[in-house]
Amino acid sequence: MNKKPATVDEYLATLPDASRSTLDKVRGMIKSAVPGAAEGMAYGMPGYKYDGRPLIYFAAAKNHLGLYGIPTVIEAHKAELAQYDLSKGVIRFPIGKAPSQKLMKALLKARIAEIEAQNAAKKRPAKARK
Fold first, then answer.
1. pLDDT tens, residue by residue, 20-55
2. Please, what is the average pLDDT of the chain?
3. Residues 29, 104: contact at Cβ < 8 Å?
4. The domain at 8-129 falls in which architecture?
5. Strand 38-42's sheet: what is its strand order?
């Protein structure tokens, strides 16, 4: 029986070299852009949380790699993401070709702003939210 990876390192160790190398770059970009993000596994893939909420996930497939969990960010950055295969909740990119650090920072910054707005709205009294 195959045991699911419990850590990001275990997950990456299961991948072919090219996928592992590319996702390790993505991992480094996330950690650099959001040093306080909590790393872990969720939905069978590596993910990060910011201020208690899901920030972003990444995973490998047979023929591509993907970034997950940021549907509204994807929609807001469609022009910048035109070179990638997109669907509502995923950015697919070629194995061996991670998104640029500039693009990753922009996506993460947008997602952080979204999380902070959601958390601020939760903290406001019910009357103020109407």
1. 999 999 999 999 999 999 999 999 999 999 999 999
2. 93
3. yes
4. Alpha-Beta Complex (3.90)
5. 38-42, 45-50, 53-60, 65-68, 90-93, 85-87
